[in-house]
Write a structure and sequence with these properties.
The complex is a heterodimer.
Chain A lengths: L9 E5 L6 E6 L6 E6 L3 E6 L11 E3 L4 E4 L5 E6 L5 E6 L3 E6 L4 E7 L5 E7 L5 E6 L4 E5 L9 E3 L6 E7 L4 E6 L3 E6 L4 E6 L4 E6 L5 E6 L3 E6 L5 E6 L20 E4 L4 E4 L8 E7 L5 E8 L5 E7 L4 E6 L4 E4 L1
Parallel strand pairs in A: 1-5
Antiparallel strand pairs in A: 1-29, 2-3, 3-4, 4-6, 7-8, 8-9, 9-10, 11-12, 12-13, 13-14, 15-16, 16-17, 17-18, 19-20, 20-21, 21-22, 23-24, 24-25, 25-26, 27-28, 28-29
Chain B lengths: L6 H10 L49 H7 L34 H10 L17 H4 L14 H8 L12 E4 L15 E4 L23 H9 L14 H10 L40 H11 L10 H5 L6 H10 L17 H5 L4 H4 L28 H7 L4 H8 L15 H11 L20 H11 L5 H12 L9 H15 L14 H18 L16 H6 L2 H8 L1 H4 L4 H7 L8 E5 L4 H7 L5 H4 L13 H13 L8 H12 L14 H4 L12 H4 L5 H8 L2 H4 L1
Antiparallel strand pairs in B: 1-2
Helix pairs in contact in B: 17-18
Classes of the chains: A mainly beta, B mainly alpha.
GO biological process, one term (chain B): mRNA processing
GO molecular function (chain B): RNA binding
Protein name (chain B): Pc13g13600 protein
């Protein structure tokens, strides 16, 4: 049942990590669980909503259900398959780990990037492919079905770190954003690459669920909604319009801050860097471009680096630089 | 014996059956018929012991011993005993093979020999570092680099005709000086050219008596008699220590001369240690004991130059120098003053005296009476330190400004006015901010004096001058596109409106000044207008920057002729341009065709399979046969593909007949791409690429209406 008001009630805090949280992903179909990756080199699986969700106060959880520890460096991104059986994680150790959720062990480890890996996504039919973007400016596509240790393909168009990826299987395309200021969409079916110049390092790309629009966050403090057909700007979020009455304003000038669509692509949800009164998560109305919610996460938090929207339960999680993941619903 | 297998059988067995085990490491060399394996078994009696030279060493040494001594030690049958040397005219003895000592040495001897060979500096040149000659060297720096052989100076002199024993300089005409006794006041006889006398060496006579400077006393008489005015002092000349050694040989030593402390040891020189004998004598050779013999020798020596090293023979002879003498020379000798010069004639360095304990009392400073008080008192002690104020501090503490100082001094105010009087308070604030100096005079905001006021029209004109000049044509074109919604600053509507006004003004359709943001200064206004002007320039359609966004058709076939792989990289080049107008467009928020480009993407077949899609056209082609045709430039790509088909091998059957045959068999005409005709429609009719400079469909396309926009992104709830 879609909700009409953007949820801003803080219901759950996951204080399981010791370092800044870099990646938050809800489990597929339902989103009961949340996978969080942190600079403390661990990936934690926790329940997204607290057990007694009707509690008037914020529930705090300090121990995760499962810890996945194999990374030797910070975990930078996580992706979950649709069947929730496996997930992929990448980080500073230049490797791509494919995990078995139940066993808690890695089933595959791909080595092929020459620098830290910034983004990972599942792709293909039945999540048979893992796409990774790295600071070595390449995108590697790995096959989960064969035992080959080489990537299926390496995309080398980017001239700087590929910081973000999003696979939209509806249009058979892989969207990527790079610090070279370009958003590239590789259309596997058409055999074309659409390059959109954004002129500022791209920290997050997302395709709308119908595949007609691309949401791109850049380090000039704007989140732009581009028409995938012709590259025109449909709307821009942030900047002057990002300011609300409490003094929170959307900022993104140096950190990799992720943004996502929420509430059935009606809302743009994004993290933010620290403003005048601590960091906050922001939500904009896609059509009007107005801030509909600025949710402060705490005075001392430097940044909300990643957000995840859970369509199933209508709640969302924000990964904060203080190591906490806050769930709002 | 039937039970025992022969070794050959065993080996054959091993080779026959492949070993099931994996092996690790370097394999043995391949088996050879003649040669045994390195690691194969050899019975002890077949083994040979050889040394590093390949000689057999163990000749039954462990079984009896004779042959070991026989062969190993000498290497010849005769051993050390030399055979009788016989040589006749008919039968010349062969020159015995020259044996080197090394040939008879064993490893230990060789090693010892190696060790004994050390590279080191010859003694004469070991000027630094060696302590051997310390005693003599301490006398002066000049000794440090003294060499024994002929110095270069001597060699040069010899080349110039000088001979040892002569003085240096032009030849002198004088009488022959045959006999010493007749030397002074001889008759004027024949004169000859002689080498000059050696100039006497400057002597540094050690003065350790208390006579006046230059006073020689009876020693002067003595020296006159001896006809050697300087030589007698040289024994104590420590500066030229080497010379002492030479002369010491030629001269009779003066064993006891109570008035001079040079050679004998006086009580002052006594260091109190008993173990060294101050009168110890050197070897016989260094002392001359007969006086008569000396005379003759002296004659020979007499013309000898006083340059110490002139005669290398003399120098290298061993000469005994008693420890005491050497020590005395070192300690009390002529050392240089601190400025590097020698002390004045007749003086010695004070340090030398310090060592003599006797002088300490004599030169004590006068004793100051106990009740003596210096007449001069230090006045600064009485001054009160706390009240001291430096001039700079005093100046700082002063509250006077230039005006008040002028008033104090009775100066008249200058008639002119300050620039601040005309400044507005805001302008003053600006200067305060820029300079960080809050101490500026107040801004009075006065109007310009009468007669200097700018007329209103002039003011307006000045403002107009600030508006950047934009070509009317460009402005009109930009405006025309603005109408169709193709505008920068899509993020900021007000700014877009200002931009539009600016364009209108530039195009001449509007005569008022361009708008400015409320509350912004003139500078900001001008800056914004300049930005607008740049934006309009960038946006100038189909000329300059914009034209570079398109690849002309003439360059396209080149890419096609490349291999598909390289075509991919070649195509991506325009995007990577550093000075990309696309970036400029993106920076001013003008997203759309300017910032959008499309290049080919060649997904691998496996990727397509995993994505469960049919590979795109450019991938379906086998890259080995035909170059891929990216869908971006269908015209040129397909044209070139067709071109290649035409230049293929000349057909036996004409193309038309071939086509007819194919249509008959397949039902349709396969295209150059080998595709379904529906998929490759453009092949048959390649649309001519016409570049219209004034019109661009992509640019002029209508922006999708808000309804479309809402349909995509409006939430379901809004529809309800």
């Amino acid at each position: 049942m879609p909700r009409t008001v953007f949820p801003t009630r803080h219901i759950h805090t996951l204080k399981t990590h010791n370092g800044p949280v870099n990646a938050v992903t809800f489990s597929s179909s339902g989103g009961t669980y949340v996978l969080t990756g942190s600079s403390d080199r661990a990936i934690h699986l926790s329940r997204a909503a607290p057990n007694n969700s009707n509690s008037p106060t914020v529930v705090e959880t300090t121990t995760p259900i499962q810890k996945y520890e194999a990374h030797g460096y910070s975990v930078l991104d996580i992706a979950v398959t649709a069947d929730n059986a496996r997930f992929a994680s990448v980080g500073g150790d230049r490797q791509v780990f494919l995990w078995d959720v139940e066993q808690g062990t890695t089933t595959r480890r791909w080595t092929g990037h020459n620098s830290r890996v910034e983004a990972v996504q599942f792709a293909g039919d039945g999540d048979s492919v893992v796409v990774t973007g790295s600071a070595d400016t390449t995108i590697n596509i790995w096959d989960t079905r064969s035992s080959s240790y080489k990537p299926i393909q390496t995309l080398t168009e980017a001239t700087d770190t590929v910081s973000t990826l999003h696979v939209h299987m509806g249009t058979y395309s892989i969207a990527s954003g790079s610090y070279d200021g370009h958003a590239r969409i590789y259309d596997v079916r058409m055999g074309t690459t659409t390059v959109d110049v954004l002129a500022h390092p791209v920290t997050s790309v997302r395709c709308s669920s119908d595949g007609n629009a691309l949401l791109a966050s850049t380090l000039d403090g704007y989140i732009r909604l581009l028409d995938r057909m012709d590259g025109k700007l449909l709307n821009a979020f942030g900047g002057e319009k990002g300011r609300n009455e409490k003094g929170h304003s959307y900022r993104n000038s140096e950190l990799r801050v992720r943004s996502v669509f929420a509430m059935g692509d009606a809302v743009v949800l994004s993290g933010s860097e620290e403003g005048t009164a601590g960091a906050a998560a922001f939500a904009w109305d896609v059509v009007k471009g107005e801030v509909i919610a600025a949710v402060p996460v705490g005075e001392k938090v430097k940044a909300v680096s990643c957000v995840a929207w859970n369509e199933g339960a209508g709640d969302w999680a924000a990964g904060c630089s203080d190591g906490a993941v806050r769930v709002y619903g | 014996m039937a039970l025992k297998r022969t070794r050959a059988a065993l080996e054959a067995d091993l080779q026959a059956e492949q070993s099931p085990y994996a092996f690790y490491g370097t394999p043995l060399p391949p088996l050879d018929e003649d040669v045994r394996d390195d690691g194969s078994f050899v019975p002890i009696w077949k083994q040979e012991v050889r040394d590093e030279h390949g000689n057999k060493r163990l000749h039954g040494a462990f079984t009896g011993g004779f042959s070991a001594g026989y062969f190993n030690s000498v290497g010849s049958k005769e051993g050390w005993t030399p055979s009788t040397f016989v040589s006749s005219r008919q039968n010349r003895a062969k020159k015995a093979e020259q044996k080197r000592p090394e040939d008879f040495m064993d490893a230990d001897d060789l090693r010892e020999q190696e060790e004994s060979r050390q590279l080191q500096t010859a003694d004469e040149f070991a000027g630094f570092g060696s302590t051997e000659l310390d005693a003599t060297r301490r006398a002066g720096l000049m000794d440090i680099l003294k060499t024994g052989g002929e110095t270069m100076g001597v060699k040069l002199l010899k080349k110039m005709g000088w001979r040892e024993g002569q003085g240096i300089g032009p030849k002198v005409r004088r009488k022959a000086n045959l006999d010493e006794s007749s030397a002074p006041g001889g008759d004027a006889e024949e004169t000859y050219l002689f080498a000059p006398e050696n100039p006497p060496m400057v002597a540094f006579i050690r003065k350790n008596d208390r006579k006046g400077l230059g006073f020689e006393g009876e020693s002067r008489l003595e020296s006159h008699n001896a006809l050697q005015p300087t030589r007698d002092v040289e024994e104590s000349d420590s500066f030229f220590g080497g010379r002492l050694a030479i002369q010491g040989k030629a001269q009779p030593p003066k064993p006891k001369e109570p008035r001079r402390g040079g050679l004998g040891v006086g009580p002052l020189n006594d260091t109190g240690s008993d173990d060294e004998d101050p009168y110890s004598l050197g070897p016989q050779i260094s002392y001359n004991k007969t006086i008569g013999g000396d005379k003759k020798k002296k004659k020979k020596v007499k013309p000898e130059p006083t340059i110490a090293s002139a005669n290398p023979l003399l120098n290298s002879k061993p000469v005994f120098i008693s420890k005491k003498v050497a020590a005395a020379r070192g300690a009390g000798g002529f050392r240089k003053c601190r400025d590097g010069r020698l002390p004045l004639d007749g003086f010695i360095l004070a340090d030398g005296i310090m060592g003599l304990s006797i002088s300490e009392k004599k030169y004590d400073p006068p004793v100051i009476p106990e009740d003596w008080k210096p007449a001069k008192e230090i006045s600064s002690e009485k001054r009160d330190q706390s009240k001291y104020v430096s001039t700079a501090d005093a100046a700082k503490a002063s509250t006077l400004n230039p005006t008040s100082r002028a008033a104090l001094l009775g100066e008249d105010q200058l008639p002119g006015k300050s620039i601040f009087d005309y400044m507005s308070p805001e302008a003053r604030e600006k200067i305060v901010k820029l300079t960080g100096n809050a101490n500026l005079p107040p801004a009075l905001g006065e109007k310009a004096p009468k007669g200097y006021e700018l007329p209103e029209s002039q003011k307006r004109k000045d403002l107009w001058d600030l508006v950047p000049k934009l070509d009317k044509q460009i402005a009109a074109q930009a405006l025309a596109r603005a109408v169709s919604g193709w505008m920068p600053y899509q993020e900021d509507e007000k700014k877009r409106a200002r931009y539009q006004t600016f364009l209108q003004v530039s195009a001449g359709t509007r005569s008022t000044l361009p708008e400015r943001v409320e509350g912004s200064s003139t500078d900001e206004w001008v800056m914004e207008m300049q930005e607008f002007s740049r934006a309009a320039e960038v946006f100038k359609p189909m000329s300059g920057v914009m034209a570079s966004r398109f690849t002309s058709s003439s360059t396209a076939p080149k890419i096609v002729s490349d291999a598909p792989d390289s075509a991919e990289s070649g195509l991506s080049r325009p995007v990577e341009k550093p000075d990309d107008p696309a970036v400029a467009a993106a920076k001013i928020g003008m997203f759309g065709p300017m910032t959008r480009s499309t290049i080919s993407f060649y997904p691998s077949r496996l990727l397509c399979k995993r994505f469960n899609v049919k590979p795109p056209e450019n991938v379906q082609l086998d890259p080995g046969e035909r170059p891929g045709a990216p869908s971006t430039e269908p015209g040129t790509r397909f044209q070139s593909a067709g071109f290649q088909a035409e230049t293929g091998p000349k057909q036996l059957v004409s193309q038309d007949v071939m086509n007819q045959l194919l249509i008959d068999s397949l039902g349709y005409l396969p295209t150059a791409d080998g595709l379904d005709p529906s998929a490759s429609g453009p092949v048959n009719a390649p649309p001519p690429v016409v570049v219209e400079p004034e019109r661009n469909d992509a640019l002029e396309a209508e922006r999708p209406g808000d309804a479309v926009f809402k349909a995509i992104f409006g939430s379901d709830d809004e529809d309800e």
